[in-house]
Write a structure and sequence with these properties.
mainly beta; 5-stranded mixed β-sheet; 4-stranded antiparallel β-sheet; globular
């Protein structure tokens, strides 16, 4: 059975006008929600216990920010992957500017590596990549022929990896292993295909039951799919450009959702804000970047 939650189920956690809000990530060490405005080059934090917010302007477009195990953040930036140290010092982990290309979504794998995606600004097919980063050595190419590298996540037992190349309208699933000799990811197959008229899959998160929650760009909703690929919940939202979702809060039961204003001729008042659906489910604790 599919259930649809009416729009009053959401709350505005942070009212903002982000051009391209993205990348919600719960940081358990600080009790804060990290999120981004990619095209606004801004890194936001939000503390739901106190309501305190911070905004940091980055030097270039930033696609993702994830906590590091030793403190600080790893940033997926236009020109590569950088490290923000606890003392606010910055250094490049990998610097590789490519004209016309920028960073997009990223996720931390069960082994603590960062899987970072890229895309061309014009979204040309084959212009994007997915690469694996550790604290040592050059990145490892995982996929080198994607258009808009987006949501990435792992099943609770770490044996499956879900991945979105948005223009395909699919969530794909791979068999995953941390062993490079075994190919890390293999047996790519469709998990879910989003029907015409329902939008494009963007960011995703996997919950403690192994269900996949996906944000629908131009679909005005977040959907939950069971591990077998059955649609069992739809949360409708009042603005069309829903970009990503993640569980947060001390008990990981609140679903945070980012939104965008870019390209909207008549934006809804909450477009570009950080939304939250309290008590939506039960999230998985996410690993920190080990580098």
């Amino acid at each position: 059975m599919t259930t649809t939650s009416p729009s009053p189920s959401y709350e505005v956690a942070v009212r903002a006008e982000a051009t391209l809000g993205e990348g919600p990530t719960w940081d358990p060490a600080t009790g804060r929600l990290l999120w981004l405005d990619i095209l606004g080059a801004r890194l936001h934090t939000y503390d739901p216990a106190t309501g305190r917010r911070t905004v940091r302007v980055t030097d270039q477009h930033v696609g993702a920010a994830k906590p590091r195990a030793g403190g600080g953040l790893v940033l997926n930036l236009r020109d590569g992957v950088g490290l923000l140290d606890p003392d606010d010092g910055f250094r490049w982990l990998h610097h590789e500017p490519v004209p016309g290309r920028r960073a997009n979504d990223a996720a931390v794998a069960p082994d603590g590596s960062l899987w970072a995606g890229t895309m061309r600004y014009d979204e040309a097919p084959g212009g994007g990549t997915l690469s694996r980063f550790t604290g040592d050595g050059p990145p490892e190419a995982i996929l080198d022929d994607v258009a808009v590298s987006n949501g990435t996540g792992w099943s609770p037992d770490g044996t499956l990896m879900y991945y979105i190349d948005s223009p395909t309208r699919r969530i794909d699933v791979f068999t995953y292993t941390a062993d490079a000799s075994d190919g890390r990811v293999r047996d790519r197959r469709p998990f879910v295909e989003i029907e015409d008229g329902a939008g494009y899959p963007d960011g995703l998160t996997v919950d403690a039951d192994g269900c996949v929650w996906v944000a629908l760009w131009d679909g005005g909703a977040v959907r939950r799919y069971t591990p077998t690929g059955a649609l069992d919940r739809v949360i409708t939202l009042p603005t069309p450009r829903i970009t990503a979702c993640a569980f947060g809060g001390t008990d990981l039961t609140d679903l945070y959702v980012t939104t965008a204003r870019v390209g909207l001729t008549s934006p809804h008042p909450v477009a570009g804000s950080l939304l939250v659906v309290p008590g939506a489910g039960k999230g998985l604790a996410q690993p920190s970047f080990a580098g």
